[in-house]
Structure formats: structure tokens, C-alpha cells
């Protein structure tokens, strides 16, 4: 099919929420600018959501929920699967649109995200038959069973780094389980997820999937606080996650929180050097400008490989092309916003002030129209002291720090010395070392000899300050989007 130009599509989607199956403006009529971070041009204006808009969206979701839950689970699954099929047909259009609003490179990042979105809906659509309870051997004269029932209206608050994918991992299981949803999009990236909602509303009954754009205090907070919202699922910063958790506690409402990370990558002395270096390139998420919760922002390399690893990684990163995110030649796009751009530059300055050596890779684009864009050269730090904020704090930028180690015990202690516990990787040819690393690393998502991004059917979620709950799996649908009811039938 002929794909619409992303600039035109952003204009077409401007000023709109999608509530009860239809596009509507914000009730105040207010909007806010959305920019292309490669050129800083305004690509559209998003509707400015406030409490009145939240009330309307939640009312629509509540009205639709009982009829939606009454559909047989497999029928809901078929509709969600059909949504996945239609998203697949529009994936190039969606990829270009998300590249435009986030600055992520089309070829290396945005197309990948669009493909995973379709897969997520198809995956969960096929799991509808698994919404089943258990038979409990309590008493032979009593039939005792458990039932899985939907929560009701689910509020989902999503981030800007992979907005379509992370939205899909929240709303697909929620809807298949019989809930209706209200999404609050990230203010930096409202259009691609709105287009996904539009496509899905061609299939779903009105009110099952509603989406609002806006900011946290005016739009996100009223969604969390709304008395008819029975569950909130959130991906974002630790600070905001704690605010949401406190608000949920007032309602005794369940939450799923996928928060920050400071993920360690451990390269043992027997690792395949070439493979580990390639894993670092993908693991740091250089093609996403490091804007990932699971980014390998701490790399520990055994002293026997340390120098060779650094030289090889520098060469790989230096060969990457930074440029216009919509250009097929581009490997690395931009930081998403001015605020994030200044934050990343601040950490790079701090690392240098701490005595670290900053090895900068790639090159800033030479195209004059990109001169004002939020481009940051990838930085590999060496020689940083242990107490540097670059090593301990989440940067969410194309920055990693490499440190040497000599023993497994030493490196496990360093890796676990963090408030975060989202993801980790270990690179080794020795199975015993691999298994010991998996057992001892304090993280919810551990990989050996690979650095994959989240995929459907891989249970994903962190421990410690990295959050609560799991996503992307059957477990996520059953445990986080249903209540369990026990029923006892006395047959005497």
C-alpha cells in the first residue's frame, strides 16, 4: 500500500485524542508542539489532555468494559490478533512516524519497533484460551475452582523511547483479559501510538481502547487518581514511578512499574572477543542513542581482554553513521528532546571532570539542516573512579563506562552494587561460569552471550529500584490484568 508521508500524517493527527472510537479535540482546545529532534521543526500539535479529557476517556472505557468482558475470550483474542495483522500492514508508515517524532534511526531502530508491535498483538491474541482457572482438591463433597476475571478499566502511561512497543506490551494482555484501556502517551511522542489506536479502532468496539496526549501533572495524575481506574501500568523514571505507587496506595490499586536500569555487561577472559564487542554495540543501544532502560551502560571486561576490547569497540562505534533519522544510510539518530540532550551532555562533562577518559565515536552529521538537531556522539569512558555518577546513575544516552576486573567474585560484587536490577549479560564460553553468573546477578532479565531487546514470550521486569511486575509474557496477562476468584459449590 502507498504509505502516507510522516510529516503529513503528523499534521493529520494533530490536536486529537481518540475517545470512544472517535477523534476528539481536548475539551479546553489547548495543544502543545511536537518537534522533529533532528531539525527542531514543529511537525504537529498534540491535544493537551487534562482532567476533563481523562474523565471522558475513563467513562467511555467503563461503559464498554462489561460488554467487552462478556465476549468469549477467544473472540477477544481474534479481534486483538486482527489488530496485529492490520498494524503489520501499516508497519512502514508507523516506523517512519515514530522515527520522525523520536529521532530514532528508521533502518536500525524504528522498523524493528514497528515489527515487534504487530507481533505483540498477535502473540497475546493467541493466548486468549489460557485465561483459565484451576480445580482445587479441597473437599470431595465440594466443587472448588478458581476463575480469572478482568480488573475493569486499566490506565497505561507509556514512555517516548519505544512508545509503540511498550504500549503494546501493556494494552494487548489487558484487552485480551477482558479489560478496557486508557493510554496516556508521552508528550514527546504522541503521534505513532495515536495512529496505532486509530488502526485498532477499526476493529475494536468503541471505548475498548482510548488514548490521550498530555503531561504528567495535568493528564497522568488524574488518570492514576480516577476512582474508576482499577489498575495502572507505567514505564518511565523511578521518581515518577514512586509518585504513581503512592497514588495507587491511596486506592489500594495494583500497579505494574517498569522503571530505570543501570545494566552491567560482564566479559569474561574466555569470551569470544568479536562476538562480545558486537554484543556491546547492540547492548549499549548505540543505534537508539542509548535511550533504553536495559542499555549496557556499565561494561566490565576481564583484564586479559580489556585493552583489545576497547580498541575493537571504538572501531565499531566509529564506523557508525550519524545522520537524519529518516535516511536509510543512518545508523544513529538523535536524542529525543532538549531536556534529555542537556542531561546527557551534563553526564559526559561530569565523567571528564571525574578524571575519566572519554573516547568519542562516530561523527556529527555534516548536513547544515541538521546543525541544530539533538545529536550526541557516542562516548566510551575508561579510567572512571568507582564513585563517579556516570557509573552509578542512569544516563539514558549513548554513554557507557568500561572497567577492568580479574575475578568472577570481584565483578559480580561490582555488578550488583547498584540500586537497579533490571537487566544484565555475561559473556563466556564456560557453562559453569555462565550458570553461576545467572544465579548470582541481581537482575530480573539476564542473558548469556547475547543482548536481545525485549520480545514477546520473554518475561521481562526488574527488581530493586527497577520496578514491580512482569511484562511480555503469559504470566503478565494472568497475574497483572486479572483477579483470581475462588468459587466453592457444596454438593451435599
What does it look like?
This is Aldehyde dehydrogenase family protein. Belongs to the aldehyde dehydrogenase family. InterPro entries: Ald_DH/histidinol_DH, Ald_DH_C, Ald_DH_CS_CYS, Ald_DH_CS_GLU, Ald_DH_N, Aldehyde_DH_dom. The protein has two domains: 277 residues, Aldehyde Dehydrogenase, Chain A, domain 1; 192 residues, Aldehyde Dehydrogenase, Chain A, domain 2. It is 39% helix and 20% strand. The chain is globular, with a radius of gyration of 23 Å. Strand 7, helix 7 and strand 8 form a beta-alpha-beta unit. Strands 13-14-15-12-11-17-18 form a seven-stranded mixed sheet, with helices on both faces. The protein has a six-stranded mixed sheet with strand order 8-7-6-9-10-20, sandwiched between helices. The chain has 16 helices and 21 strands. The chain has 492 residues and is of the alpha/beta class.
Rg on CA atoms, Å: 23 Å
Question: Which bin fits the share of residues in helices?
Answer: 25-40%
| Separation, N- and C-terminal Cα atoms | 64 Å
- The CATH homologous superfamily of the largest domain is termed Aldehyde Dehydrogenase, Chain A, domain 1
| Largest sheet entry | 7 strands, mixed
- Output mean pLDDT: 97
How many domain units? 2
Low-confidence stretches: none
* Overall outline: globular
Beta content: 15-25%
Tell me how many strands there are: 21
What fold name stands as the CATH topology of the largest domain?
Aldehyde Dehydrogenase, Chain A, domain 1
Q: With helices defined by DSSP (H or I, 4 residues minimum), what is the helix count?
A: 16
Briefly note the structural class of the backbone: alpha/beta
What is the CATH class of the largest domain? Alpha Beta
CATH architecture of the largest domain: 3-Layer(aba) Sandwich
Protein name: Aldehyde dehydrogenase family protein
InterPro entries: Ald_DH/histidinol_DH (IPR016161), Ald_DH_C (IPR016163), Ald_DH_CS_CYS (IPR016160), Ald_DH_CS_GLU (IPR029510), Ald_DH_N (IPR016162), Aldehyde_DH_dom (IPR015590)
Domain Aldehyde dehydrogenase: 23-486
Keywords: Oxidoreductase
Amino acid at each position: 500500500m502507498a504509505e502516507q508521508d510522516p510529516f503529513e500524517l503528523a499534521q493529520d493527527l494533530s490536536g486529537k485524542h481518540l475517545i470512544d472510537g472517535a477523534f476528539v479535540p481536548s475539551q479546553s482546545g489547548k495543544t502543545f508542539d511536537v518537534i522533529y529532534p533532528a531539525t527542531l521543526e514543529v511537525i504537529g500539535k498534540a491535544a493537551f489532555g487534562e482532567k476533563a479529557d481523562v474523565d471522558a476517556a475513563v467513562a467511555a472505557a467503563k461503559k464498554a468494559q462489561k460488554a467487552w468482558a462478556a465476549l468469549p475470550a477467544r473472540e477477544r483474542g481474534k479481534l486483538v490478533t486482527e489488530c496485529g495483522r492490520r498494524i503489520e500492514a501499516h508497519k512502514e508508515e508507523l516506523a517512519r512516524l515514530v522515527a520522525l517524532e523520536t529521532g530514532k534511526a528508521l533502518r536500525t531502530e524504528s522498523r524493528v519497533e514497528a515489527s515487534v508491535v504487530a507481533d505483540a498483538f498477535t502473540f497475546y491474541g493467541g493466548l486468549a484460551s489460557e485465561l483459565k482457572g484451576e480445580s482445587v482438591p479441597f473437599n470431595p463433597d465440594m466443587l472448588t475452582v478458581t476463575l480469572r476475571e478482568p480488573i475493569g478499566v486499566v490506565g497505561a502511561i507509556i514512555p517516548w523511547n519505544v512508545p509503540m512497543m511498550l504500549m503494546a506490551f501493556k494494552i494487548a494482555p489487558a484487552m485480551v483479559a477482558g479489560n478496557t484501556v486508557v493510554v496516556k502517551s508521552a508528550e514527546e511522542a504522541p503521534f505513532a501510538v495515536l495512529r496505532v489506536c486509530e488502526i485498532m479502532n477499526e476493529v475494536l468496539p468503541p471505548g475498548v481502547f482510548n488514548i490521550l496526549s498530555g503531561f504528567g501533572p495535568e493528564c497522568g495524575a488524574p488518570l492514576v487518581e480516577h476512582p474508576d481506574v482499577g489498575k495502572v501500568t507505567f514505564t518511565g523514571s523511578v521518581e515518577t514511578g514512586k509518585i504513581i505507587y503512592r497514588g495507587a496506595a491511596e486506592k489500594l490499586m495494583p500497579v505494574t512499574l517498569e522503571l530505570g536500569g543501570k545494566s552491567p555487561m560482564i566479559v569474561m577472559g574466555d569470551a569470544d572477543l568479536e562476538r562480545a564487542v558486537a554484543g556491546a554495540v547492540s547492548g549499549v543501544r548505540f543505534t537508539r542513542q542509548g535511550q533504553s532502560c536495559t542499555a549496557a551502560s556499565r561494561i566490565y571486561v576481564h583484564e586479559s581482554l580489556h585493552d583489545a576490547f576497547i580498541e575493537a569497540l571504538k572501531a565499531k562505534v566509529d564506523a557508525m553513521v550519524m545522520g537524519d533519522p529518516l535516511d536509510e544510510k543512518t545508523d544513529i539518530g538523535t536524542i529525543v528532546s532538549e531536556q534529555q540532550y542537556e542531561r546527557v551532555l551534563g553526564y559526559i562533562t561530569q565523567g571528564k571532570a571525574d578524571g575519566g577518559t572519554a573516547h568519542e565515536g562516530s561523527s556529527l552529521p555534516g548536513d547544515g539542516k541538521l546543525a541544530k538537531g539533538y545529536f550526541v556522539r557516542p562516548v566510551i569512558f575508561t579510567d572512571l573512579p568507582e564513585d563517579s555518577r556516570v557509573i552509578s546513575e542512569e544516563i539514558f544516552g549513548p554513554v557507557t563506562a568500561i572497567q577492568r576486573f580479574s575475578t568472577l567474585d570481584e565483578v559480580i560484587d561490582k555488578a550488583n552494587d547498584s540500586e537497579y536490577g533490571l537487566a544484565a549479560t555475561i559473556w563466556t564460553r564456560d557453562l559453569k561460569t555462565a550458570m553461576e553468573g545467572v544465579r548470582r546477578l541481581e537482575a530480573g532479565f539476564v542473558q548469556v552471550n547475547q543482548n536481545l531487546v525485549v520480545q514477546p514470550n520473554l518475561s521481562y521486569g526488574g527488581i530493586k529500584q527497577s520496578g514491580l511486575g512482569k511484562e511480555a509474557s503469559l504470566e503478565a496477562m494472568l497475574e497483572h490484568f486479572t483477579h483470581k476468584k475462588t468459587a466453592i459449590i457444596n454438593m451435599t
